Automatic annotation (TrEMBL):
Name listed for the protein in its UniProt record: Mechanosensitive ion channel protein MscS
A Pfam family annotated for this UniProt entry: MS_channel_2nd
Gene3D superfamilies: 1.10.287.1260, 2.30.30.60, 3.30.70.100
Domain Mechanosensitive ion channel MscS: 116-173
Subcellular location: Cell membrane
């Protein structure tokens, strides 16, 4: 028993030494830890500076959303690189190949777990690079219509025309049919005008075109058009086409002024715009009931309640 107790410290020392040898754990030097920490801190500071510089440069050439997103990506990328370098300096036993291998496995797991998030992220990057629209443009996608406020890595922020804030996933914006209302400086609007069948069509056309051309907000080129479109039951219809500013409010206000101007001009010229006439055809059952009621009334018989 005494011999065993005497040998115990020696056995523990050999066991610990063998365990360290099996795990291949090198000693950690305080100087290396301090140097690695300094590398990480310096890298984070440089990453912050890079973000500010790249955002300023890209804001002069691209949209504010483009500059904000890609400058942030530059910052995060450089920060991760600095952290990797710092860990390598602090822990020389950590091989970059092993770190990259571990990151590859983690990346696959993240990709499977966050498919929708990654889809929105890559769609956001494509939107920012291609720039089909910019902040301030008015768009229509799916059931959303409004003004773009910003584009980030997850969604496109839209303020609808009735004042609501809607977050549209970037995958929807990229995958659905997208209408950019302000993609061009002017858009065309059509107003239907119906006149009486006895109207002099050439004279009515001239009155309408003069009225539209005098409206503020209607552009001269392309010129307004007044085209016959339909022989309705009570009217002959014109499609009055004109071009105005592309923004929603400009379009609505110009349309309002055009309708008012056309109505006043046709009224002053004595052109009638009769209301729509609807003909009601009674069913055979209703016709039979009406005939029976008329026959009873002619014979003085009381009607059934």
């Amino acid at each position: 028993m005494r011999a065993f107790l005497a040998l115990r410290p020696h056995l523990l020392t050999e066991a610990e030494g063998g365990l360290e040898a099996d795990l291949n754990l090198p000693p950690i030097e305080p100087q290396q830890l301090a140097l690695g920490a300094a590398v990480i801190v310096a890298g984070l500071v440089v990453a912050k500076i890079l973000r500010v510089v790249t955002r300023w440069v890209w804001a002069r050439r691209h949209t504010a959303s483009y500059a904000r997103v890609f400058s942030t990506l530059v910052q995060y990328g450089f920060a991760l690189l600095a952290i990797g370098v710092g860990l390598t300096v602090a822990l020389p036993s950590v091989q970059p190949v092993d770190v990259l291998g571990g990151l590859g496995i983690v990346s696959v797991a993240i990709g499977i777990a966050f498919q929708n998030v990654l889809a929105n992220l890559f769609a956001g990057l494509l939107i920012l690079v291609r720039e089909p629209f910019r902040a301030g443009d008015q768009i229509a996608v799916a059931d959303v219509r409004g003004t773009v406020e910003e584009v980030n890595l997850r969604e496109t922020v839209v303020r609808t025309f009735d004042g609501r804030r809607v977050l549209v996933p970037n995958s929807t914006v990229h995958g659905e049919v997208l209408t950019v209302q302000t993609g061009y400086s002017h858009i065309r609007t059509t107003v239907v005008v119906g006149v009486d069948y006895a109207t002099d069509l050439a004279a009515a056309r001239a009155v309408v075109l003069d009225a539209v051309a005098a409206v503020p907000g209607v552009v001269e080129e392309p010129a307004p058009q007044c085209l016959l479109s339909e022989l309705a039951p009570s009217t002959i219809n014109f499609d009055v086409r004109f071009w105005s500013g592309a923004r929603q409010l400009e379009t609505l206000e110009t349309r309002d002024r055009v309708i008012e101007s056309i109505t006043s001009a046709l009224s002053d010229a004595g052109v009638q715009m009769p209301p729509e006439i609807r003909m009601v055809q009674p069913s055979p059952e209703l016709t039979a009931a009406l005939d029976a009621a008329a026959e009873r009334s002619s014979h003085g018989a009381p009607e059934e309640s």
